[in-house]
Design a protein that fits this description.
alpha/beta; binds zinc ion
Length: 444
């Protein structure tokens, strides 16, 4: 008898719209072809029975990853980043337009990205474009080349080739993006409210140089500009919980606004940053515990839409790992391979169910980016699947990370949750044969 499907997976806990259910999932041609109650008797050419301690999740979608390739490939590359993603259960990555050279601020910059990734894609990859002062007339062309949207900064980004937009330029850019119903994603910190970080091994000086007001002021400006222009905007890596009431009010008003936060803001806190531990430096900064509590509240109330890593590594040298100088170190946390266990471990402690965390890291970012076939286990969707053991203990050994550099604030942490297998389009990821596809905005 010919089997119904290429592959059937069966488990007691399969992630669905109502949480976890006992189910069978049939996969054909790389897509989910059937979801049925456990015992329905789907047949597959291959079959996978989940163990009692395992759950079946949709592949994670990480819409905030800096791969830095080409041009700063020594920081991270497509090969290492997408292998790390695969090991961490992330099957879709959207690459940020800066830190690579050239940046993705033109169609030729986008072509350079595609070329650099060829032969090195272990998971599916899409690209964000960038909006900088001198390319605002070219955004439509880049939109037509099907980037998922445009990233801009409201203050210096850290690299000279990706300058920020001034207040007037932000409005111009948003008006342009609104004209073709695109999406602007914004690094929102107010330049007038931040100061240069002092040198030294203490975290407090760096933290004080980027106060919460820097974020709340910039978020308010972005909201005003979105209201004026009608553009759809997304706030990147929200750290300051003081911004949440502004965001909630803007949404109540009908402004098209979405928001993300990151694992480090949800799990690390300023008082626990070890002296000289520049692996914790990022912008905006990791703040105090009460701020962290309010970010969790924001997620649970739906004011924050999703959790993505903002994986932004550099070399150990640029991280000033040796000197531990917070003033000099590159700002960026590396966590692509660890996002799910990191967030789940803290969620578990807080009594937040796994299905909720999973939605923040799958359907949440997929919806922001408009990836309609990713992030959910449902008929017609991509068969990107993760077999995860939520209770397994994991001690983070940096030597086992696939990231190009093993610098991470989670080194030595004991976490819950192990990614056992990652499937992309119905096939278990083969680390000797990269099979990730390129993803384009609006493509089915
Ligand atoms: Zn970033």
């Amino acid at each position: 008898m010919t089997p119904d499907h290429d592959l059937v997976l069966r488990g007691q806990r399969v992630h669905g719209p109502q949480g976890f259910d006992p189910a069978e999932v049939g996969v054909s041609g790389g897509r989910i072809a059937a979801v049925a109650p456990l015992g329905a008797g789907l047949t597959g050419a291959r079959e996978i029975e989940l163990d009692q301690d395992e759950v079946l999740l949709p592949g994670l979608v990480d819409s905030h990853v800096h791969i830095n390739d080409p041009g700063r490939t020594e920081w991270e590359g497509f090969d290492t980043a997408t292998r790390a993603a695969a090991r961490g259960g992330v099957t879709t990555v959207i690459d940020m337009p800066l830190n690579s050279i050239p940046p993705t601020t033109s169609v030729s910059g986008l072509s350079a990205k595609v070329a650099a990734s060829t032969g090195s894609r272990y998971v599916d990859i899409g690209f964000w474009g960038g909006a900088v002062p001198d390319n605002l007339g070219d955004l439509r062309e880049l939109h037509a080349a099907r980037v998922f949207g445009f990233k801009c900064f409201t203050l210096p980004s850290g690299v000279d080739e990706f300058p920020p937009l001034g207040a007037g330029e932000l409005r111009t850019a948003l008006a342009e993006v609104a004209s073709f119903d695109g999406l602007m994603i914004v690094h929102a910190e107010d330049p007038g409210s931040v100061s240069g970080a002092p040198s030294g091994r203490g975290y407090e000086g760096f933290l004080a140089s980027r106060p919460p007001e820097a974020e709340t002021r910039a978020v308010a400006q972005v909201i005003d500009a979105a209201r004026e222009t009608g553009a759809r905007v997304h706030i990147l890596h929200l750290s300051a919980a003081d911004s949440l009431p502004l965001i909630a009010a803007a949404r109540a008003e009908g402004i098209r606004l979405t928001v993300e936060t990151c694992p480090h803001y949800l799990t690390l806190s300023a008082d626990a940053v070890p002296e000289g531990a520049t692996s914790h430096k990022c912008c905006p900064p990791i703040r105090d515990r009460s701020n962290q509590d309010r970010l969790w509240q924001g997620l649970l109330e739906g004011v924050i839409d999703c959790v993505v890593t903002d994986h932004s590594p550099s070399t150990a040298e640029l991280k000033h790992v040796e000197s531990g100088d917070f003033g000099a170190a590159w700002g960026g946390v590396a966590s692509l391979q660890l996002g799910l266990p990191v967030v789940w471990t803290e969620a578990r402690r807080r009594g937040v169910p796994l299905e909720t965390v999973v939605s923040w890291m799958t359907a949440g970012p997929a919806d922001v980016a408009g990836l309609s076939e990713k992030g959910r286990i449902r008929v017609g969707g991509a068969a990107d699947l993760v077999i995860f053991s939520p209770d397994a203990a994991l001690t983070v050994d940096p030597a086992r990370l696939e990231h190009r550099h093993p610098v991470t604030p989670y080194a030595g942490s004991t976490l819950h949750g192990a990614v056992r297998r990652t499937l992309l389009a119905g096939e278990e990821i083969d680390f000797s044969r990269p099979a990730g596809r390129l993803l384009w905005r609006g493509e089915p």
